[in-house]
Amino acid sequence: MSKILLSSVIAMTMGSVSAAVYAADSATLSLTGSISPSSCDVSLSAESIDFGRIPASSLDEEFNEMMSAPFNVSVTCDAATAVAVQAVDNRLSSAMSPAELESSMGVTFPALTEKHIFGLGNDSANEKVGAMVMTITEATLGGVANNNVLSSSDKSAWTMHRVSSTSSFPLAKDSYFALGKTVESISPAPVTNSNYTLKSGVFLKRAGKYPSGEEVNVDGNVTFSIVYL
């Protein structure tokens, strides 16, 4: 009898559990998460270039050139990512054309086009102060020298440029630059860290071509931005 009773109790208990677990006809399990893209940052070794006070008396030539110290544009990513850097001229309205360079300073640069010449602001007479050209002289990818700088106007077709201290590459406004995967590659390399060494050349007119007795500001301003490819 005890065995029968025990069996009955067990059967009743299991029935209760079964009813609790399968109380609903259906149940839904949800699974959530998010896929985060790689993140990259761009930084400058110097956020400003200051030529200081330039005596008007020192601008005694038709064409006066000053060169900045080298500075670096660095890109870091939290994972290998195909990116380029874009340089935007925030003084675009004051940028000279090659023809204006020739007429105001008597100089021509056959290798430069209008897209390579950045603005330096206007003086009180609303005349363009001068011109700036920025060039890449060397670069590294993952800490290793890489002289294969690529440029593009549309992020689709890329042109190769060999850079060195004696053969620099002039940046173009609103265009993109990156590093090739290999020495001969025209495809941008995935980046975890890359570094570009640049110099900035400033061209100023003869002092007599600026408003007399006034301080004239040299006011270049360029934004470097990461562009994901």
From TrEMBL:
A family per Pfam: DUF1120
InterPro entries, A to Z: Adhesion_dom_fimbrial_sf (IPR036937), Adhesion_dom_sf (IPR008966), DUF1120 (IPR010546)
Name listed for the protein in its UniProt record: DUF1120 domain-containing protein
Signal peptide: 1-19
GO biological-process terms attached to the record: cell adhesion
Gene3D superfamilies, sorted: Fimbrial-type adhesion domain
GO CC, any one term: pilus
Keywords from the UniProt entry: Signal
